[in-house]
Each structure stands twice: as C-alpha cells, then as structure tokens.
Design a protein that fits this description.
Layout lengths: L2 H29 L7 H30 L3 H28 L4 H10 L1 H18 L3 H7 L1 H8 L1 H16 L5 H28 L1
Helix pairs in contact: 1-2, 1-3, 2-3, 2-8, 2-9, 3-5, 4-5, 5-8, 6-7, 8-9
The structure holds protoporphyrin IX containing FE.
C-alpha cells in the first residue's frame, strides 16, 4: 500500500472513531444516570445537534478543499455525510420511540401539525437518497453529472435542518442564529467557488 493510501486510511479511521464519541457519551450518560432529570430530552436534542453538526461539517468539506487546496476534506466528506445520516436516524428513532411511543397516527398528525417536525422529517427524507447513493457504484450508475445534481440537495438539507432547529426553539434563537451564520458562510463560499470555476472554464 502506498503512503497516501496509508495516510488516508489512518485519517478515515481517526474520523470514524471520533464521530462515535457523541454516541458513546450519551450511551455512557444513560448507563450511569448522568443526564439530569430528563435524559430523553437530553438525548433527543443532543442527537439532533450532532446531526446538524455533521451536516454542516459535510457542507464545509468542498469549500475547504477549494480555498485551501487541502485534499483531506474530500477524503472524509462521504464519511461525515453518512454520520449525519446515522445521527439523524438515531434522533428520529428517539422521537418515534420515546416521544410518540410508535403511535403512527399521532406521528402522522404531528408531522402536519408542528412545522418544526415537518421540516425535520423533510430533511430526513431528503437525506435518504443521498446516503443510499454515496458510493462509487451509484456514481457510475447515475453518471457523474446527475449524481452531482442529486447531491446538491445536501444544501437544501442544510437549510431545512436549520429551519427545523429555528422553529423548534421558541424563545431564545441565538443558537439557531449561529447555525444560520455558519450556513450562510458555507453557501456563499460554495457560490463564489462556482462563479470562479465558471469564469475560468468560460
Ligand atoms: C435530519 C435532520 C434533522 C436535524 C439536523 C435535526 C436537528 C435538531 C436539532 C438541532 C434539535 C435541537 C437540539 C437542541 O435543542 O439543542 C432538534 C430537536 C428535535 N428534533 Fe430534530 N433534527 C432532524 C430531524 C428530525 C426528525 C426527522 C424529527 C422527527 C420527525 C425530529 C424531531 C425533533 C424533536 C422532537 C426535537 C426536540 C424537541 C423538543 O425537545 O422540544 N428531528 N433537532
């Protein structure tokens, strides 16, 4: 194995283990009864926050590569995206299980009644095709152009996810505002890099 492959595998292993730390933290918290008076809320919200963090880290990879020339962001981009999906799945499960006790009728009503649940669900549904097609075979099957078009949906997921958070928070929206600011920077960086690319290639 050449040294680049070795380094990139090492980086992936590091990111993989680091990405499991939040989950480990909540599992440990539950086991040791260390999550306060309302552990379900702490876990649901914590998993939601980590979903958002991973989604934004995924969105940061391409601009970071573009503006710095570093290759490592692209090496871990797919893994970060899959972790966003993984944490979204766990976040959804905690909602379905501990919030709604798998009462599908109530869940259906909740999706239509509470806009923040609608936005969260829409984000999750849009992430599914991205996760399913996040492999080399899907790129070959779809063709690079169509695959890229599909994966641009990740930006919409970012917007919907922050909207979900904003609508959830009733009073103090300072944390969602921080996420909006990060998202605005990432979307502008992406937009600018596309304009630059367009100008270079004509
Ligand atoms: C996939 C994208 C999603 C992201 C990025 C996301 C993100 C978040 C964030 C950041 C929070 C607030 C955490 C905090 O207060 O610190 C949250 C809370 C929550 N989310 Fe999501 N979420 C997603 C999907 C969903 C879905 C699909 C559902 C259910 C259908 C859902 C239901 C909830 C609930 C019930 C809360 C807690 C509300 C409360 O405690 O009052 N989320 N989510």
């Amino acid at each position: 194995m050449n040294s680049f492959k070795l380094k990139s595998n090492g980086l992936k292993l590091f990111v993989f283990i680091a990405s499991l730390i939040p989950l480990g933290w909540y599992v440990w918290g539950i086991q040791t009864d260390n999550l306060g008076a309302n552990p379900i809320e702490v876990v649901t919200r914590g998993l939601g926050t980590w979903t958002l963090n991973f989604l934004l880290m995924t969105l940061a990879a391409t601009p970071l590569r573009h503006y710095t020339g570093w290759t490592w962001p692209l090496i871990i981009r797919r893994m970060l995206g899959l972790f966003a999906f993984f944490y979204a799945g766990l976040h959804l499960i905690t909602y379905l299980w501990f919030d709604q006790f798998f009462d599908w009728l109530a869940i259906g009503k909740d999706i239509f009644k509470r806009p923040f649940i609608t936005a969260g669900m829409a984000t999750f549904l849009l992430l599914i095709p991205l996760a399913v097609t996040s492999n080399a075979r899907a790129i070959r099957t779809l063709g690079e152009r169509r695959w890229k078009q599909l994966h641009r949906m990740v930006y919409l997921c970012g917007v919907l996810a922050v909207l979900h958070y904003t609508w959830m928070v009733k009073a103090d929206i300072s944390n969602p505002l921080i996420y909006w600011a990060i998202l605005a920077v990432l979307l502008s960086a992406r937009g600018l890099s596309r304009i630059q690319k367009y100008n270079v290639t004509g």
